[in-house]
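Human: If only I could read backbone structure tokens as easily as an amino acid sequence. Take your time, and here it is.
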Amino acid sequence: MTAVPAQRTAGAASRDPPVAALTGKPRRVVLDTNVLVSLYVFTDSRFAPLRTRIESGEWQAITNEDCFNEFRRVLGYPLFALAEERQKEALAAYGVVVAHFSGSPQATVTLPRCKDRDDQKFLELARDAAADWLVTADKALLRLARRERLRGLFRILSPEAALTES
């Protein structure tokens, strides 16, 4: 996947209209690891409609090497006790629907620093890949959603909010 412009029009509306309805293009979303675990490990999750939106093409999930590798690593955590075959199935199911971004960082657009350094990569990916949304259940990332510096770039939404916005 090639790099695409990251900056949106300044002063974007606080409630995004459905991108696909306006442009015929899917909404571009970055999903953090906790959301991916919910969608691809706990398939009976209340967030299952998010996976449906991705698999139907209504949304285009975006990842990069660092974010995808974190998902791979987390699947192996003893907490989940997933057999190796189940880990591979989860990665494969996500792998066939996600677009891998490998473009250059948009260093001209400064992002706020996330309290958890491990989560900064999701902010950077959302900026660099010109995502519409970063969907997360992480409290540190959700606190950043109120920052003015993100206005016009992308929105940070909880899975619940993403479901009501679409």
Q: What stands out?
A: The longest strand covers residues 27-31.
